[in-house]
Amino acid sequence: MSIRVGIFGYGNLGKGVEAAIRQNSDMTLAAVFTRRNPATLKIQTEGVPVLNIVKAEDMVDEIDVLILCGGSATDLPSQTPEMVKLFNVIDSYDTHAKIPLHFENVNNEAQKSGKVGIISVGWDPGMFSLNRLYASAVLSEGKDYTFWGKGVSQGHSDAIRRVEGVLDGKQYTIPTESALEAVRSGAEPELTTRQKLIRECFVVAEEGADKARIEQEIKTMPNYFADYDTTVHFITKEELEKNHSGIPHGGFVIRSGKTGFNKEHNHIIEYSLKLDSNPEFTASVLVAYARAAYRLNSEGVSGCKTVLDIPPAYLSQKSDSELRKELL
Amino acid sequence: MSIRVGIFGYGNLGKGVEAAIRQNSDMTLAAVFTRRNPATLKIQTEGVPVLNIVKAEDMVDEIDVLILCGGSATDLPSQTPEMVKLFNVIDSYDTHAKIPLHFENVNNEAQKSGKVGIISVGWDPGMFSLNRLYASAVLSEGKDYTFWGKGVSQGHSDAIRRVEGVLDGKQYTIPTESALEAVRSGAEPELTTRQKLIRECFVVAEEGADKARIEQEIKTMPNYFADYDTTVHFITKEELEKNHSGIPHGGFVIRSGKTGFNKEHNHIIEYSLKLDSNPEFTASVLVAYARAAYRLNSEGVSGCKTVLDIPPAYLSQKSDSELRKELL
After folding, report:
1. Least enclosed by CB within 10 Å: which of A5, A18, B145, B157?
2. Averaged pLDDT for residues A82-111
């Protein structure tokens, strides 16, 4: 029997979930919910209903897991607790500081409804969190490092576009090789953010704009660029579209630790992601955890969970004995 | 309350467990069991009894988890099912092909005794298995690669020492950069073992021995070296002791996969270990899973488990809410 998945919100992440469901033979897309007029929305999967989000409650018998694809700022804080009243849900809530509050809100409703809600699924929080946990549990004494990039930062790209004379722009966050090498050496360095990453900007300027002034304004922008080594490249609109239209991202989680009676041995655990499409990868993680939510709830589990609570085997289509034979 | 840990077998791995317990403030070493005469064995922790293995059953009330530090060839197949009759146990059973059988044997006894046995804990099987599972569950369509090294291969070092005229020797298995780069490119290459790794040998020859003949014999040795690119360096006994007395190891687990409606996006997930001491790192993993075994059994769980079954949060000293706040 196929796991019937609903998508709640059809932006880049929702589209990524739709694509990921096709790659998992034990799942089918049951419905897509949107705030827009459903008639205006064209999805890629034939024969699947597109409904307004107010119709979600009519679909409780048709959906095993609902994947919430809204944003962390305003959508998920209300949508996840609301929807877990009706469905097993997965979200990618990524406002790190507010995760404990979000957890409580979702857990309260999930306990009452008897459903499972897995929150903060993706790569950070998500796969990076798992790696921070495993590495720090294994190497009790050591130091953790997380580097983001190379990838597009939406917030910094928006900041560039607000500079006068800028038509369009894209900003890449890039970890510095020197910082990565220092961490991999086992020296456990203290690193400033300036040492850890550089910011590279590709800017399309208006005709006749003062490029020197634009570059200066970007490089000295407080919070966004002033504290970093920033480079600015002026390119044409065509170059921006051709070479910088993707949404790549990635990063590194590294733990450096010591063992031995005299702490004489160094160990480096490194996890890295190099992603052509940030939303499609995040969507693929969401879909794997949708499988886990379904299985847990089928076994009678309810409440809010995070990736840290889920036994890894629950993510796989394979049976426990297949996993032991093939992967262990 | 401290988790009371017993060590069963006091070789390199057992010593590593003793050192790792000191790095975990929620654990204490309760006893060390040995097949040797206990009076001849000097351990590093004061006030802890050293007992013959036949005394284990007298210690059931003093030990919460017993960590089995014997070998996979002859010790663990009998010791793990035997000891799980009395204790929660952890082992590092690493004969991949026989894991399903070992699992059944341990599970049968653990179900009867009401204890938890976590088998095949370490880095491969262990942390590498976890990474193969997570990566393949997230990127459903793709290809997995495991590379071992740079590290000492005991079996290959032994093989060198059996060559006539060789006094001592050490063999390092080293992944080739060209193979790693090909995998990281997303090309999903098919790689032979010759393409994936090289073998580097450091050999101490007897005085007057025919080095050309020794080198030739090593390089053409069937199974061990004939199918690989092998280099042989002749060094002095002093150089071997000074530069090659450690037991380093490590490796890489890489998954290359595609997402998107037309599989247009590549993603690379890479996990790597660089270990100064193979046994001490393995011991550190065993100790983290000892915590999980204790907690699971305290909650009434019994039976055989592997790393794939254990919720990650069970490995940590921190509470679930601390983990959500600090690591997620």
Report:
1. B157
2. 97
